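Record passed on underneath.
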Amino acid sequence: MAGSYQFGTQFTAHMVTATWSRAKGWGAPELTERRPIPLDPTAVGLHYGQSVFEGLKAHRQPDGHISIFRPHAHASRMRQSAARLAMPEPPVDLFVEALEMFVRADGDALPDDPSLSLYVRPLLIATESTLALRPADEFLFVVLGFVTKAFFTGGMNPVSVWVSPDFARAMPGGTGAAKYTGNYAPTFAAQTQAAENGCDQVVWLDAVERRWVEELGGMNLFFVHRDRITTPPLTGTLLPGVTRDCLLQLAPGLGYAVAEEPIAIDEWRAGCHDGSIVETLACGTAAIVTPIGAVKTASESWTVGDGTTGPVAKALYDALQAVQQGRAEDPFGWRYPVRNS
């Protein structure tokens, strides 16, 4: 595992799998060496997109053991995603057991370095061989992972963002609230457009009015006003981020009032111009907390605050990392210790 720990490139040695069939239900999870999975060219997951995933992290603790961060919350979200795609919902106990098996097997790959974590990727995919247009009768659940730094290697350095004028991420009644694999490839064209305009990431507006700010790439957004912190409400088109939920719970303890409120792109721009919005930040499992320094549209651009990392983003980042890494109390019970890891 020597190397730069670039996100998603250096995988650990093992994986855990479990199967489901309509006839037999769930099988027990099995630990094996990481290897290609048998998948027929006519597998339903390849043709009709019955595939969902999760992403969570495990962190080395001060006493040397590893704790998985909020596995039950991620299990619940995978169940919700699976239900939306007419897939079998992995039992929470099976999900957590598979994570434990994986971390016990490959925890040694995680160095004693607080800048690194073990990113764990559970996947559920339809494997039945049929081109009949219906939900599959056979599925494979897989857990694999890799050691990584934060997604944005600059850490807390602000990123610049592009407000996509041509693309939408999710529509009402669609799959925006599910961690569905089909939600991601359609974002690549917009991300390419952002890069062509000198920006790091894409801001998604709602698909109906093209006015309401929803997400940043695959991350949730928070806006720091003079008197409170807000984040767009979960309307069914936004992914219910586990990190988002963490910040909503951590912020009051740091002295910040928080609220779930919609914000229009015009309000964001005006708030940055008149100083009523002093910071904007994105959050997610891979990125943790990432400040936004500049916003660009097809017709204009503006700076958020003074363009640097603000005190609220830093405070939330530090507080979350302290809980994840075992350097602070865990009042919400988020750390799940894996002994012998």
